[in-house]
Design brief:
- This protein has 217 residues and is of the alpha/beta class.
- It folds into two domains: 5-172, Vaccinia Virus protein VP39 (Rossmann fold); 173-217.
- The protein is built from nine helices and seven strands; from the N terminus they run H-E-H-E-H-E-E-H-E-H-E-E-H-H-H-H.
- The protein is globular.
- The model has no long low-confidence stretch (mean pLDDT 96).
């Protein structure tokens, strides 16, 4: 079963013979890949939607995987034992942050996070949750560029720019970084044209554009 570039990049952060919780697993493509490539000795794959989980169970059976447990859940309350890696991918940054605000987070050693939007909200919440950002990558899958954030337990203080752009990404930058934020700036400029300057959102949008201009110049 082939895996997307995005999911392959997430899998690269996971070491062999690990216990994994995949939150929002959808069709369980990542767990299947991890078991087949001996990255996982046990995987808990959960999703809030019963439809995708039905397909996930079918995919797991057809792949012959035996170490993947499927659970219908909207968070991490189902995690009972210690977990090496928690994967939360394909959701908004605020939603991921809210999911992590649970007592069961203390059972998890490492996080591999891929927010579709609002990565800055997620980054800004990590230190208070007891995690620090160790690595970040940008990957292009189709016509979309995704941010992947790898965290371990610890504390760190991030500047405003590091929260918005990522403490690792802002140092390494590169072509994907420039393309990602050029697209973001273009979108913001289009939005702000239709927002009156008296609107409270106008200042927020302009500040974000200014931030991007500063980093890209």
């Amino acid at each position: 079963m082939s895996l997307s570039t995005r999911l392959l990049a997430i899998a690269e952060f996971i070491k062999d013979n690990s216990t994994i919780a995949d939150i929002g697993t959808d069709h369980a493509l990542l767990p299947i890949h991890l078991e087949q490539n001996k990255r996982a000795k046990k995987i808990i794959a959960s999703d809030i939607n019963s439809g995708p989980l039905k397909t996930a169970k079918k995919n797991i059976k057809e792949a012959g995987c035996t170490n993947i447990e499927i659970i219908e859940s909207d968070g991490i309350d189902h995690i009972k034992d210690k977990v090496d890696y928690l994967v939360a991918a394909g959701m908004g940054g605020k939603l991921i942050s809210d999911i992590l605000k649970h007592d069961n987070l203390k059972k998890i050693s490492k996080l591999v996070l891929q927010p579709n939007v609002a990565a800055h909200i997620l980054r800004g919440s990590l230190s208070a949750l007891g995690f620090k950002i160790v690595d970040e990558v940008l990957v292009e899958d189709g016509k979309v560029i995704y941010e992947i954030i790898y965290c371990e337990k610890g504390k760190q203080q991030l500047s405003t720019d590091e929260i918005y752009f990522g403490p690792v990404l802002i140092k390494s930058k590169g072509v994907l970084f420039d393309t990602f934020y050029q697209k973001r700036r273009k979108k913001l400029r289009k939005i702000i044209k239709n927002v009156p300057q008296t609107n409270p959102n106008y200042k927020h949008l302009q500040n974000e554009i200014d931030q991007i201009n500063k980093v890209l110049k």
